[in-house]
Design goal:
single chain; 287 residues; alpha+beta; three-stranded antiparallel beta sheet; disordered C terminus
Length: 287
Amino acid sequence: MSSTEIIEPEKTLSLSLIRPVAGIADLVKFHQDVRNVINDVLIEDQDYGTIPGTSKPTLLKPGAEKICIAFGAAPKYEKIECDIDHDREVKWTKKKKVKVWNNNTEPPTYTYDYEYENGISYGLYRYLYKCKIVRSDGRDLGEGEGVCSTLESKFIDRPRDCENTICKMSQKRAFVAGVLNAFGLSECFTQDMEDQQYQDNGNEEEKKETNKKPWNNQTGEKVYLNVAYSDRNEAKRLGAKWDNNARSWYVFSGNTEALKHFGNSNEENLSIDLGSKQADFDTSNIF
C-alpha cells in the first residue's frame, strides 16, 4: 500500500522593497544639473517670477520650455474634458480695486476701496488637459493637469471672445504642472500661479511694508556680490539677481541689506589691485 506524503511549502517572509532606480550619486548629479539649468539659463521675470504674497517664485511657460529643451523632452497633450455652450447665460459680479484720493492733505494722499460691477454674458467654455513630459526615446518623465474656464473673473464678462484663450491656458497650466512633476521642482517653484500675478489679495498694508524692506530697493548703481553657491537662496531672498554674462549675483547700491550680508566683489578686486595702498583707501564704511 502506497502512501502520499504531503509536504507543506516553507513559509517565508516576503518583503516588497522599493529601491532607487539609480544610484545615490546619479540622483544627486541629476538634481544638481537641474539646478544648474535654473541658475544659469533661466532669466528672472521672463522664465520665472515671484507673485506678491507667495514665498517662492512661480515657473512660467518660457522657463518650462527651456528646461524641457535642456533635457531633450517635449510636451504631449491629451484633452480630458471639454464643455462648450455658446448660448449659456451667466450672471456675474466683478470686484475692482480703485484709488480714493484725499485732496485735503499736502501732498494729496489716497486709500483703496472697491467697486462692484454686475452684468450678464453669454457662452461657457471649459477645457481640462493632461500634459505628459516625454523624452525623445519615448519615455514618460511625468505629467500634469490643467483646467481653465470662462467662469474665471478675467474672462467671465467676454466668454465668446476667449474660447481659444481658454483652451491654450489649460494646456499651458498642464504643461507647467507636468514639468514641475517630471523634474521634481517643487522645492524651487510654487504651482503655476502666473495668471494671478499682481491681483489684489486684500492685504494692501502688508504689501506696502514689504516694499519698504531694504532688499526691495532697486535704486543706485549695479553692484556685484560675493555669493557662494550654497548661499544662493539667501541671496535671492535679499533681492539679488543673477547676471548670466558676468556670471555673478548683483544688487543695486540702494539694497544695503544684501551689501552688508555678502559684501561688494568690486571692493575685493579693488583691494587686490591697490596692494599696499589699501591701508590708505578703506572702503569698509562706504555702505
